[in-house]
Amino acid sequence: MKAVNMLLLVCAGFLVGGPAYAHGDETHGGEASAIIGAQDSENTPMAGPGQPTSTSSSEAAQPSTDHDASVRDHESGSNNGGFVSLLEQLHPATVHFPIALFLMAALAELFVMVGRGGSMEPAIRVMIYGGAAGAVLAALFGWIHTGLWFGGDMAMQLHRWNGMLIVVIGIALAAHVRSSRERRTILRAGLFTTATLILFQGYLGGELAHGPNHLGLSWA
To answer: According to the model, what pLDDT value does residue 66 have?
Structure first.
């Protein structure tokens, strides 16, 4: 049992630390634009008299997508300062907690199902409570980040409403986490469904943050 608990602690560390590390070296916003602009100016040859200036290679190779254009149009009209601006940037930080807690709760429930984690049920309840609260918080900061904006491409729409579905199921799980063992099958179905939705939500978040096909997977 000690070995199982140690394994769960190690997995929890990876789940909590992994997303934060993945975001650690990102270059966002104005810094990224400045770097790209500097590279373009270095790589663009000087035009002689009477010669048209050539288009930079990055502009030709990376046309603006519908998602990029819609997000730029939305953010150009919602630049606030001070405390509100801080709140708008907290969504990426808050999503890590429901991700880690719900996935760890699902993993611990698997140990319970195979008869090796009977003493984990109180911890599973705590993780479900924390995951549901974290999902509500992450969704709240997500709406603060975008405002009452319902635009965006398919990835944005799926990310928005899949996140709300996770919130609804998470609250339902928290309400029924103390159900009897006879009804635990329903709890497990909801927990594993939530874990699957969270994995899909993470992929959609990567699509929004890093662009289409950010994992380099070819579906053709």
So the answer is: 54
